[in-house]
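so im writing up the methods section and need the Poly(A) polymerase record in one place, dumping it here so i stop losing it
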Amino acid sequence: MALRSPELRFAASTGLGALSRPSRLAPSPLAALASPRRRRRGPSPSPSPSPSDSNPSTASAGDADGPEWKKVSAKRFGYKESMIPDEAWNVLHQLRSRGYDVYLVGGCVRDLIMKKIPKDFDIITTADLRQVKDTFVGSAVIVGRRFPIVHVHDNNSIVEVSSFNTYVRGSTGNQMPTSKSPHCSKNDYLRWKNCQGRDFTINGLMFNPYSEKIYDYLGGIEDIKKAKVRTVIPAATSFHEDCARILRAIRIAARLGFSFPKETAYYVRNLACSVARLDKGRLLMEVNYMLAYGSAEASLRLLWRFGLLEHLLPFQV
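--- predicted struct ---
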């Protein structure tokens, strides 16, 4: 049977077709967790009242207006404490012992759901960056200008820690909501608002390793099930705000064997020329990162398919 789209043909040619669409023979174990999402053109509305972390047993899917969000037990995905390395646990424990809330966030949560070994473990906390640095005296440094984070050095490893109090400098903020439902819990609002600033829904997941709850405000679990790389806000706005997201979209799709929804695919192709505006140092970093970790061939195929190679090759030469 002929494949219907270039993205599916790519997935089949790289041996990743099984991830590009659900199997008809064996439904994904994630299928039971996915619920219909309403089509949206902007950020999801802030959550309605929800149970707090202290009472996870009462959590339910669909406690928000608009796109339904979930608080899901990580055990449904086969999570075990041993999946998190000692270095990450050390950072989590020390921050939590000082009274700060801590979560794993981003790609590592996505990979844990997919039963993959995360390359990095990123942490977000209610502590500000100075408080994080003071917690790890002599082993932590604040890095980054556009989005400052803390690098905590532990046992020849680096654990990245960000803060709920940090926002991207230079962001237009056109799509970032500023109000919340009047009865929304403070914790839910902090998590939800931070997730709204993420690049893709599958990277907008938070995990509390102490309550073993995964927070999905953006439909990221459903997009993992569907093997889709979808922007959090409309793709045109997202890529105009940070054109490096185009390259990250390619990298993630290549590494995971995912494809793009129509809107995302359209703007990856039509805004491809914008990557030439990136600072050369950042462009080199993104390209090198893309071609590493065993996904170079898949990345090059997607770069060619979406018209990005012609904009990257002059730089590489």
